[in-house]
Amino acid sequence: MNRFIGRITMYLIFALIGVLLWSSVSKTFFNPSLWTLEMAQFVMVAYYVLGGPYSIQLGSNVRMDLFYGEWSPRTKAWMDGITVLFLMFYLGVLLYGAVGSTAYSLGYFGTEPFSFFWDLLVTLVTEGSDAAGEKLGFLERSRSAWRPYIWPVKALLCFGVFLMLLQCLAEFFRDIARLRGVEV
């Protein structure tokens, strides 16, 4: 799944180029567009967050090769297995915060964002989209002049961090297999 999403995400760089090109053209020849800077930021978030798991899958993430490059494959597997646990802890904390922030952007101001999303899902399935829409509160908007809704970017962040956690889990199991002498 990360490969499929990552291959599609690669082309977001062209969307980013298009937005920034339009920004330059509109500032030079027309009235400046209000939406270009924020849209460029949103596209960059999607590019980074959805492309990260694919980058880890390919092994093209940045490593400090001062020592790592000289180690044996077994030592590399040990070190990768240990460091990926730290990364998974960090991503778990990030996902928890992202879910809370996404719930806030959908108008939930309580302390249980997961129960909010569960109730929203149950209501959507059992009662339909109108009833689920009534559970939403005041939707958060950006403070810029364009004022887009923030929840799509925050939901995308949750999805991307979840994919990154899955890819880290896969890498962890690959490291364990390498330590056991099984090549995956």
UniProtKB/TrEMBL annotation:
Membrane topology: Multi-pass membrane protein
Major localization listed first in the record, in broad terms: membrane
Ranges annotated as spanning the membrane: 36-56, 77-99, 149-170
Keywords: Cell inner membrane, Cell membrane, Membrane, Transmembrane, Transmembrane helix, Transport
Domain of life: Bacteria
Residue stretches making up the Tripartite ATP-independent periplasmic transporters DctQ component domain: 16-109
A Pfam family per the record: DctQ
Keyword Isomerase in annotation: no
Keyword Cytoplasm part of the UniProt annotation: no
Molecular function terms, GO-annotated: transmembrane transporter activity
InterPro entries: DctQ, TRAP_DctQ
GO CC annotation, single: plasma membrane
Compartments, record wording: Cell inner membrane
Record-stated family: Belongs to the TRAP transporter small permease family.
Function of the protein: Part of the tripartite ATP-independent periplasmic (TRAP) transport system.
UniProt subunit comment: The complex comprises the extracytoplasmic solute receptor protein and the two transmembrane proteins.
PANTHER family: 2,3-DIKETO-L-GULONATE TRAP TRANSPORTER SMALL PERMEASE PROTEIN YIAM, SLL1102 PROTEIN
Name under which the protein is recorded: TRAP transporter small permease protein
Annotated source species: Roseovarius nubinhibens (strain ATCC BAA-591 / DSM 15170 / ISM)
Organism lineage: Bacteria, Pseudomonadati, Pseudomonadota, Alphaproteobacteria, Rhodobacterales
